[in-house]
Amino acid sequence: MKKIVGSLCLCSVLFAANEYEANLAGHIVIPAENFINAPKDAPEFLQSTGKFLRTTRNENLGTFNVNYTEEEMPNAFRIPFKKQALQGHSGIKFINDKNFWLLSDNGLGTKKNSSDSMTFIHHYEFDFKKGSYKHLKTIFFNDKNKKFPYLINLESTKSRYLTGADIDPESFQIIDKSFWVGDEFGPFLLEFDEKGTLKEVFDVNLNKESLLSPDHPNLQLSNPDIQENKANIKRSKGFEAMASSKDKTKLYPVLEYAVFKNGKYENKGGKNFLRILEFDLKNRKFTANTYTYTLESNAHSIGDFNMIDEKYGLIIERDDTEGTMDKACKNQETKSCFKNPAKFKRIYKIKLDDKKGVAQKIAYIDLVNINDINKIAKKPLVNNKFVFPFFTIENVDIVDEKHIVVANDNNFPFSASREPFVPDDNEVILLEVEEFLKAK
């Protein structure tokens, strides 16, 4: 165990989080090019994906490359493609034994380019001893009962499937057969039934002030001579993560970035802090209670949040780097290497302090410094360590008193973290972290 280099200041009290070792206990790889059919009652428009990736229409399948960098280095995958991609895992729940649920995000990243990307959640069976998986089913989100108060992309269709032009599902919890989903576009809190049909939409407020991103349906650009901007949440920085209390009475959705207030982003001593909100499931409304989570750097983001017990939880904090150090660019090389390999990819154990209203960082594990004592890894080690070098790591949950499960969001077909310009697989790892989970 060793001390963290930096430290965190919360409410004038200095807390230092300790680093603990993580040991690889299981590794499952779901290939990047993995697709599912749209439902039979879905319109023809949803039988392929990526037709508006570059904003203007292109219906010819496989006609252009996906580009990664300023030099537009293409990978081997071409778009648009048939079917829907089984990708973008952005929230995980361990149920029991080998049963897990994984949420997929809005598709290709923005409202503009994801109108033909369906939104859905998956049920998997993971066998970490064998390193195998079974995709059991996918539930597609829809608004058949017209509960979404705004115009949806497929408004005139009978099935009214929700697409990536409507919502960006980034976090979820399962409570009493309902899927509670945190959306980034509004942001909104959404409740779906067990078949994926929308039941209710909850607007978000903080201290009686509405929280709105530039993608909220109520906001639109005004005339060029009017500077008014009512958005106080960055675009695509809504509910990236969401935990639930162990007694299933509260939800704790987390904004991915600081709230913009009084001309600046909320911060303490120059470090931005994120808001963890509280939603009362019995009264079905947001409470006045919030917690602040301070980032180690203003350039960081969070990936997922789940509770261990009533007071302690797990939060992923990461930077925007990707790639392995052994393939880092040297000298003037740029075409077969990583310009900025993964550096800061951590899972923090936090404590919710009700009196101070903070999420105190207690301990962390480093996801680019994982031991592979039992030689489980299905990907090459780097300097005798297993690394999880992904740009976006958006899944973490506790499995038992010794283990947690972690997974990446492969942003298919964009992210390339194992091999330069090669689309990432979906990887799910089991980590033995007994001492980390015991930390107080």
UniProtKB/TrEMBL annotation:
Please list the residue ranges annotated as the Phytase-like domain: 84-412
Protein name per the record: Putative periplasmic protein
Q: What is the species listed in this Swiss-Prot or TrEMBL entry?
A: Campylobacter upsaliensis
